[in-house]
Amino acid sequence: MITPIRIRVHNIRSVRHGEITIPDTGITALHGPVGSGKSTFLSAMVWALYGEVPGGLKQADMRRSGADGEPCEAEVDFIFNGQRYTALRGLRQRNHRGGVREEAYARWWTNGATGPGQDEPQISPSKLTMKIYELTGLTGRAYCGAFFIAQGELTGLAEGTPAQVQQLFEEQTGLGDLTKKVDIANAEARRAEELAAAMPGSREETDEARRALDEAQQQAAEAHETHEELAETARQAADRMRIAEEQAQEVQQRHRLAEQERINRARADERVQQCQQRVSSLTGELRRAGPVSPTPEVLTQQLDALRDAVHSAERAVEQIDAAEQHAAAIDGRVRQTRAEVDRLADPELDRRIESAKQQHTEYEQRRGALKGEYTRLSRALQALTTAESACCPTCVQPLRNVGALVADLRVQWERCIRDGKNAKAKAEAAVQLHDALLSRRQELTQLSTRLDAVHAEAAAARQQAETARRAADEAVSAVVVHLPDFDGPANPERALQAGRAAIEQLSTELVQARHTHGLRTQLTNAESELEAARADLAARETTHPDVTANELAEATGALTAARAEHNQAAAEASQANTRFLVAAERVTVLTKAHEVAEARMRAKADKLHTAHILHVAAAAFAQFRRDLLAEYTVAVSQAATDVLTQITDRHVRFEIDDAFVPRVHTAEGTVRPTRVLSGGEKATAALAFRLGITEQITGGNAIGMIIADEITAAHDADTRRAVLTCLSELGWPALVVSHGEEITEVAQQVISLSQPDENTGTMIAPAA
Fold first, then answer.
1. From CA 280, how far away is CA 621, in angstroms rounded?
2. Rounded CA gap, 251 and 37, in Å?
3. Does the pTM of the predicted model rise above 0.70?
4. Cα 95 to Cα 69: distance, rounded to the nearest angstrom
5. What is the DSSP letter of 140?
6. Could you tell me where the beta strands, DSSP code E, fall in 531-622?
């Protein structure tokens, strides 16, 4: 378990600044008058580890009065399972909305080191608490219950009533929380029963709502049946009206078609005449245009081929220029790089580098020799100036003129310093020269590599320019192939000029050919349209749809009668639907009322069920508490017996009976309650009882350091001495706070604290 070995506090309670070191064995005493800040170190330790402030105080109450604006910190070094850790928790004040707010921070070290990988400077206070819990498996409350013995606690265990002893026992072992859960469950069960009794709702109310709902549903069903019958009658009338509308629409459609057909015949005749005129006009225009050869398709192919060849030749010529410019630029870079290589070339460069390196080595050796001389002279001067007798620091012979020797040594010492600085400066200059020469050699190597790369790039650029020239010649030859009238030398400029002229001529011929071809297509379409118009006119002359006035009047009268019948049937169905909707709305209202009544009954039943469950849970918690209490009392009694038999041979057993009365068994076989024992025996039994609780909480694991805060304050001198002697005989490490002098007789280390001063705070004397 946790064994604290150092506690440092700064501006906490009455302590301005203090640090105590605690050995991990034996008893360490914090000794001083009342109010000197002894308990402050204990509170600071608990706060640093778990962030808990004893006594029900707030975290801000840890700050020392008068220390506003200064850091408030507690730091604890402790050992756990052979590993050393350090936990720090502090407060800093920050301005917040016109006021001052305390802000907590924390740090954590492993092995007490502050090097990389050990310190966690960004850890939050909550994460620090979680680290301690994960390390030890104990919460702050469990840790205090196991290892902190508070003032008056032993008296309560030895002299308290059974109820007081049981309460203290439950608080220390953690069963107090279970007792609170039992009380809370019983209280909540009673509240649930009271709420159920006060809630509205009854079975009679629910049944009455059900009967009203059934009657309304019956009336709605009858109204719905009447509505369906009248709606069916209306649907049949609607079918008859729809048939009459279809017949009337058919007669009207036939009448409209007859009128439209007469108009269409006139339009068809007019269209035939227009088509004849269009055919005559296109025939004359085509005769004037004359024949065209070749066709637009052939001309288009020739024009596209010639354009592609000219464009390819133009791009090839442009690529020649770009390749030649690129080659010229690469040649310029070759000349520039060769000039830089010539500028940096130095045949003596390697020799100069080696010379600078040797100079640096010589000056460093000189510095080392001067450092040794400086150390020797410093020690001699120190020995002569601090020696009680005038003796030579080397041969230990008496000296007559010590002052002259000191002056001579000081001159040598100052000269050694100057020579050392001079040697250091020359060594640094040699290093700078060596680095500069190395950098120059590296730069020269890089330039040589770059020159080779630029040479290769220049050769590639010249090859690229030659390839471009050959491609241009091939492209020009491809243009000439499409120019049958071309003669003379096929140079690029002349061939491209002739190709562009041929493109313009072919474009003109293509426009003319497309115009003539379009006239022919229009004539063909006009002739086809004329034939279609003549055929349409001939077909329309054979159809003569017609409708008489009597047919139209009969269809209109039948439609009017059907509409009147449908309107009457629809009105009756609408009235029946209204009656049905009223009945349905009443069903909805009564359904909601029934649901409300049912919900009230369910809510009341749920509350009663909840109360029953809480009563069952409270009984289960109570039984579980009784079982744990019995188990814990047996375990604590056995552990307390082990402790008691280690510190005394008068008592052979400790036990807690069923009435929760702590008792001891003597060697003579008698059983005596602890409250009737003598002062020393009572304190010894109470200490064993308390340490038995510690073993129960820790599960019998290795016991950590016991922290006792004024545990003998309420006893006389003999009892105080007996308790401290027992604690010492156990051999457990302990940190004991006391203002009595008896602690100094048994403690292996005593740390004295003085009454705090307003300016300096508590003063801490070195451990004795």
1. 116
2. 118
3. no
4. 10
5. H
6. none
